[in-house]
């Protein structure tokens, strides 16, 4: 296992006190600790955007998210001490099947997030999981031998296609300042300058090339460390497995500066390194290539994965709700349906007009009406002209019949 020069381990985060106004609203309960980036009614504890938790106050997370307690049985991130890892080559096979995908960007709790279409899949220890999203962190969440890297990118492969509540596998890629070229630079440059610098919970689609694929981030050597841990931010669900690639990927300084700008001056979106819990072992797979023995064919994937229909809770409309995550797709579907209905109605209307010769009948009626008007006008003009020439009086229209006179005559 090679050593790569990186940033020294910073001083431990000082204990921070919760301001008096940062109290949990009475209506907020443990049930409202939703599964993604925090509750929609989470307390304000020193945030860039009011109402959400903050990396700056990670010491206070456990007050509202018990699973974030420093003594939790599973936690993250950890320091990877390479002298203490246990080999697991045959017991921790990792197979990857990534294909070009789409890109949607968002920013929640100061975490730049990219959401993908379900085109990428991994198999780890007999489990198939689809890639759902990735997050970008400055500096790295994990350390190797107490050394930080400049960035860490986490690729989330979820058991639940909608949110993070059911856990899954996170592939972590460590990045350090390096060349301005390479596949990782090409991958990030296609969207990094469009990432928001402020909170943007609703995803925005970004146009990327047809060959854009997350496997461009992978290092040349596929050797990795892995351990069973937890989501490294609230609600800290303890059902995530971390796979951290050993080789550090070079990335341009321009991309590092762009990420720093997005997060804000002197801001980091990382949790301090946690003490490795008792009973947690960090394993090491020294294989330099992904496993090629496991069956990754479409038939094998289909046979192993049973589609699950997930119905979002009707009232669960927090900043990362199902509705907000899919708002653009819903709008697109609604607009498409409306357009189809408009075309259908137009075709039916045209068919009725043609079959009943309505257009010709309408034109003929209008022509006859126009001819009648022109004839009446010509007769009136002729009568007026004759009256003027012969000293007569122009004809006037007869008054309407008088019903009263008729009645009187009848009585007489």
Automatic annotation (TrEMBL):
One of its GO terms (molecular function) is zinc ion binding. Its cofactor is Zn(2+). It holds the Pfam family Carb_anhydrase. SUPFAM superfamilies: Carbonic anhydrase. Its EC number is 4.2.1.1. It comes from viral metagenome. It catalyses: hydrogencarbonate + H(+) = CO2 + H2O. It is an enzyme of class 4 (lyase). This is carbonic anhydrase.
């Amino acid at each position: 296992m090679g050593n790569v020069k990186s940033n020294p381990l910073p001083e431990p985060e000082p204990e921070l006190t919760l301001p008096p106004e940062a109290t949990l609203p009475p209506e907020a309960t443990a049930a409202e600790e939703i599964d993604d980036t925090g509750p929609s009614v989470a307390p304000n504890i020193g945030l860039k955007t009011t109402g959400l938790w903050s990396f700056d106050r990670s010491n206070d997370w456990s007050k509202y998210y018990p699973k974030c307690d420093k003594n939790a049985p599973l936690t993250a991130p950890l320091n990877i001490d390479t002298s203490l890892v246990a080999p697991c080559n045959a017991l921790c096979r990792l197979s990857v099947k990534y294909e070009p995908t789409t890109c949607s960007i968002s920013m929640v709790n100061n975490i730049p997030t990219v959401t993908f279409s379900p085109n990428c899949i991994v198999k780890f220890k007999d489990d198939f999981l689809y890639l759902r999203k990735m997050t970008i962190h400055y500096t790295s969440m994990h350390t190797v031998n107490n050394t930080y890297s400049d960035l860490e990118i986490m690729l989330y492969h979820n058991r639940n296609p909608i949110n993070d509540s059911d856990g899954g596998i996170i592939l972590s890629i460590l990045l350090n300042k390096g060349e301005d070229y390479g596949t990782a630079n090409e991958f990030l440059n296609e969207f990094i300058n469009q990432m928001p610098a402020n909170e943007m919970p609703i995803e925005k689609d970004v146009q990327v090339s047809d060959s854009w694929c997350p496997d461009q981030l992978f290092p040349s050597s596929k050797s990795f460390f892995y351990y069973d841990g937890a989501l490294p931010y609230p609600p800290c669900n303890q059902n995530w497995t971390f796979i951290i690639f050993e080789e550090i990927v070079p990335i341009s300084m321009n991309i590092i500066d762009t990420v720093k700008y997005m997060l804000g001056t002197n801001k980091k979106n990382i949790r301090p390194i946690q003490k490795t819990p008792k009973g947690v072992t960090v394993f090491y797979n020294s294989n330099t290539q992904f496993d090629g023995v496991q069956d990754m064919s479409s038939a094998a994937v289909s046979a192993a994965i049973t589609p699950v229909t997930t119905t979002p809770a009707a009232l669960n409309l927090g900043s990362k709700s199902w509705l907000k995550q899919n708002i653009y797709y819903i709008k697109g579907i609604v607009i498409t349906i409306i357009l189809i209905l408009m075309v259908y109605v137009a075709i039916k209307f045209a068919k009725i007009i043609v079959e009943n010769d309505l257009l010709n009948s309408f034109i003929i009626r209008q022509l006859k009406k126009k001819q009648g008007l022109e004839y009446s006008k010509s007769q009136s003009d002729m009568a007026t002209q004759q009256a003027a020439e012969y000293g007569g009086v122009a004809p006037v229209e007869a008054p309407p019949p008088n019903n009263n006179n008729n009645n009187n005559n009848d009585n007489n």
